[in-house]
Amino acid sequence: MDLPSIKDLQINNEENLIDITTTFFDSIKSITNNKVVKSAPFELLEGTRALEVLNPRLDTGIIELSKDETLFDCSKPQSIDSIIQIQLKLYKCLINWLEKDSLPVTILSCRYVSTILENYLKNPTELSFIDTRINSKHEEGIEFLLVHKVLKSFVVALCKFIGFIINISNSLLYEEEDLITRNMNFNFLQTIPVENILDELNDTIEWILSNETEFDQNTSTIIIQLKIMKYLNTIESKILSTKINFLQESDKFELFTFCKDAVSEIEKLKGKESDENLLPVGAFSKFIQVDLPNRNIPAELTDIDLETTYNHLINIFSTIHTFTNQANQIIAINQLQDFLYYNIKYPISDSKFSVFSRGLFQLFFIRDDKSIFGSHEMTLTNLVVELVENLIGKNTIILLNFESCLSQLNSTQKAELLKLYNQNLNDLESGIYHNLCVYGANFCRSQQLISKSLELWDTIQVSWEPFEFHVFNKLQFGDILKTGEGAISITSYIYYSKMCSMFEFLINGFETEVYKPFEYYLIYWYGEYLLLNIIQHLKDRIINIILGKINYIETTIPNKIKKLKNGPKKTQLKQIQSYNQEVIIPQLTKTLNYNQDYLIKSYEVMRQLINCQISYLIVLSKLKLMDFSQPSQSLTSQEHLYYLRMKPYSSIGIPEFPKFEQFQKILKITEPQLDFNGLMKSIELLAKAKNGLGDVIKDYESLTRYIQNDKHNFIKDSLVVTWYQQLIESAKLLDSNIDKLSKIIQAHKNDLSNVSNSYKNEITKGKHKYFPNISIVNI
Amino acid sequence: MNDDLLITTINDLPYYQFDINNQLEFKQISQLISIHLSEPYSIYVYWYFLNNWPNYCFIVKDPKNYSIIGVIISKIELHRNVRYRGYIGMLVIDPTYRKQGIAKNLVKLTIEKMEKDDLVDEIMLETEVSNIGALKLYESFGFLRTKRLFRYYLNTHDAFRLILPLSNKAHSRYAFLPLHPKELERQKLELNQN
Predict the structure, then answer these.
(1) GO CC: one term (chain B) (predicted)?
(2) Interface test with A, best of B76, B153, B171, B174 (most A CBs within 10 A)
(3) CA distances from A400 to A404, A413, A465, A493, A494 (A)
């Protein structure tokens, strides 16, 4: 392309220009062919998003704008119909941003929004639609006020709300993943208190009501639009200031009732259709992409439908109302766990939360001061003790008064051990904090966080285990089992938490669809192995820790009291024992019962369901309907694939990591077997699986009844019931797939080799995220 | 056209290594990618790959008019200084020439060269979750989905990260691996220079 000469450019005002022609051509002399000149920090990532002059896909400078778009005058009076449509469009832009696209192609494409923000950036006291580059003067009639009063309060409130979301996003969400912000360096009215915004909206509503006759039937629509904006901003004003009665059985009043009002207002708005013909020409454009310093590549403006907009808005308010009130109802740690896992994480993984609600939840849950739901009594540090003892029972000696065991040591030893103890407690707190941050994350990020937690918890276990052993063996301090062994209670909790994370990370791979069918057997086999370890640990160690604590109170302390002579020491111990009998023993019994009746049972039923799935998979492989070896043209070995898939677990010492050879031996059972013995084995396996599924369904129904009757460990209307219903549905689906396969086997019993010629597997979404539907269909 | 760079001919289609001195090839490659991939790339990205690793850019030409109908662009680098990682950055086949196994041949050429010439420990790439064709292709070679990346692409689609493990290092946590000999060599050189 020929460049125009400097003269051709007809530059008249030369005094502000510097001629760099010579410097430029001198500098490029050093560039040799095929050499890229770049600064060191400019790497591939920067390159992928770099602007490239004159490339229409990358250069925002050559975006073409119409005259209407360039010279759009925000201060021009507009009719009420136009104002309503602008506000409707802005709601669509807001939701579009939350669902998919960046700010410059949604909200910031609105000239009213960009003008207010630009003016505010230059002068924080100026919130106006006046663009000094456009000379305009207008009469101050009702339509002028509709723009400069009504639309302005709407736009200002919208900007404030966006600022709030960006604040949440900065610390609690993942940029370019959960949200694509690209804020164009605006600060979104950070310095204006949200209360001022709410007052302004109220004033505007009052003003509209006082001028109602001017607006006919449009009054209610415009007021609803403003009210919804008010409710959105109310979230910011209430979320951290509303008191939650966390873990307290005091009166529980309904919170965030404004969310219900918001939903009812949105429902009213549902009749309002969008009519973009009524939007002022040029009000929404790519102007901002050209006008402001812009690190991003050109992007088309996008749109979403009104139904999605309304539903998303309703979802925001109803979700917030639900989770704040559920949090307020929590009176026990088991309820908190039920709340977090089944009523936050579970619906989030099903995309039932807006990204805003997800971020807001994290903000609401763990505050900057580490308090939980803003509770004065419950901080993260206290919660750590509560969570640990929720599994291993109250009265954990090492958590009670550690310093008391150090009296027999010299001051150096004392300081060293105390330092180690505090370090270990901090590590435990970090591990628990890490786990608590998983709940609000998107389902992919959540897996990455869990993967990290495997390493984290393994390291924590490595620190705590020798520490607890040392303290017990050398100082005789810590919980004791009935057998006289040290209980290593904290390590036992850590080991349990680690194994739970391992199982969750493994089985959630079905949800993220990272597993190919040839890996299914490996995943269920290892899942079953982990569950077996979890169950054994709960039964052998955790239950015995609690029984040991009960034994300590019922046997050891009374013996101590007997041996003591009358005096203040004996009186003090008697008082402690009385508290133990009245308070601690019932708590320990409650924990014991919950672990035995629910927790262990739930793992056992899951293990049985997985075993049924494994039996089914073995038969499918025996009949050549599935193949659990590597892909046929693979350029790598099955061993490499095995270890890569198992990499997250491979460095974990316990439970023992199964070597490839062990898996190879296990896999032998799946080898095709189409003779009579194969027939008999397949029939036997399917019969076993069918029997197992009958038990699984009964046991899950029984667990569901347990949950429905238990008001202490599960929150009201908890989605844990839906979780188990889905598992029951999965078991039923597997049962029907087994029936179908049994019939096929029956029909081909004389020559099983025909089965794979006539049928193939078909994998579709299952009833529960852990179990894809593997059915057999005709070829 | 530089026939020294002809690597092979499969089904009458010639497969070449990219000619770094041929500006027309560069232009054709960037045009082919720009038209058929959803992500827009700057000229820098093309230069980054093609200049640093011209030996890992393979092209297929139509023997009738010698226009480029398929391209694969890759790189190899040390990952965390402990393992050698191949990365397949872009793979595009002109739609008119699809379903002829060209993509498969290009991927195979790349993997074999990386394994033979540079002893890579693993090869990695990302592809859209909804790109069933690409997933099928790579997975047939043994690539494993190791991660799902939420809204990874500019079009907000999720991606899978795929890895083909070729040595034990590919499945060992980097914290447990010694520095790669190339990194040790680099450090030694740096030390000598200082």
Answers:
(1) NatC complex
(2) B171
(3) 9, 20, 18, 16, 18
**Share above pLDDT 70 across residues of chain A, in percent, rounded to a whole number:** 98
Q: What is the ipTM of this complex?
A: 0.95
Which residues is B91 bridged to in the sheet? B72
Judging contacts by C-beta atoms under 8 Å, the chain A residues touching residue B167 are: 640
Q: Do B40 and A57 touch (CB under 8 A)?
A: yes
User: Pick from B141, B144, B168: which is nearest to A635 by CB?
Assistant: B141
What are the Cα distances from residue A253, in Å, to A40, A318, A328, A386, A747?
59, 17, 8, 25, 64
Cβ B40 vs Cβ B26: under 8 Å: no
Whole-number pLDDT of residue A356: 96
pLDDT at A1: 37
Nearest to A611 by CA among A535, A706, A521: A521
- Helix segments in A71-151, DSSP class H: 80-99, 111-122, 142-145
Q: Which of residues 286-305 of A touch B (CB under 8 A)?
A: 297
Residues 171-200 in A contacting B (C-alpha not used; CB under 8 Å): 174, 176-178, 180
Cβ A36–B51 below 8 Å, yes or no?
Answer: yes
B115: closest CA among B159, B157, B170? B170
Residue of A44, A177, A651 with shortest CB distance to B150: A177
Tokens of A407: 């009296």
How much helix, strand and coil, in percent to the nearest 5, is found in chain B?
40, 30, 30
Q: Report residue A15 as tokens.
A: 């005094």
Residue contact B142–A443, C-beta within 8 A: no
Structure tokens at A484: 């006289």
**Chain segment A462-514, per-residue pLDDT in tens:** 999 999 999 999 888 899 999 999 999 999 999 999 999 999 999 999 999 99
CA angle A352-A356-A359, nearest 5°?
A: 100
Q: What residue ranges in B11-93 does DSSP mark as E strands?
A: 13-17, 57-61, 68-79, 83-93
- Quote the CA–CA distance of B105 and B127 in Å, as a whole number: 18
| Closest by CA position to A727, among listed A447, A440, A443, A507 | A507
B162: nearest CA partner in chain A: A514
Q: Which one of B51, B150, B164 has the shortest CB-CB distance to A34?
A: B51
Structure tokens at A321: 């109302």
Of the candidates B45, B144, B150, which has its C-beta nearest A641's C-beta? Answer: B144
For chain A, the domains span: 7-62, 67-241+276-303, 551-626+659-779
Classify strands B122-128 and B83-93 as parallel, antiparallel or unpaired: parallel
Q: Which domains does chain B have, with CATH numbers?
A: 3-193 (3.40.630.30)
A774 beta partners: A763
Per the structure block, which two tokens stand in for A365? 């849950």
Nearest-by-Cβ selection for A48 from B45, B115, B165: B45
Residues 626-665 of A with CB under 8 A from B: 630-636, 640-641, 643-647, 650-651
Interface test with A, best of B151, B153, B169 (most A CBs within 10 A): B151
Quick check: B69 pLDDT over 60?
yes
Partners of residue A297 in chain B, C-beta under 8 Å: 40
Q: A759-768 and A771-778 as β-strands: parallel, antiparallel, unpaired?
A: antiparallel
CA dist A478 → A99, A313, A412 (Å): 52, 53, 21
Q: How far is B21 from chain A (nearest CA, A)?
A: 8
User: B68 in helix, strand or coil?
Assistant: strand
Contacts of A52 in chain B (CB under 8 A): 42-44
- Which tens digit of pLDDT belongs to each residue from B109-166? 999 999 999 999 999 999 999 999 999 999 999 999 999 999 998 888 999 999 999 9
Contacts of A516 in chain B (CB under 8 A): 139, 144-145
CB-CB under 8 Å, A635 with B142: yes
Half-sphere exposure for A659 (CA within 13 Å, toward CB)? 2
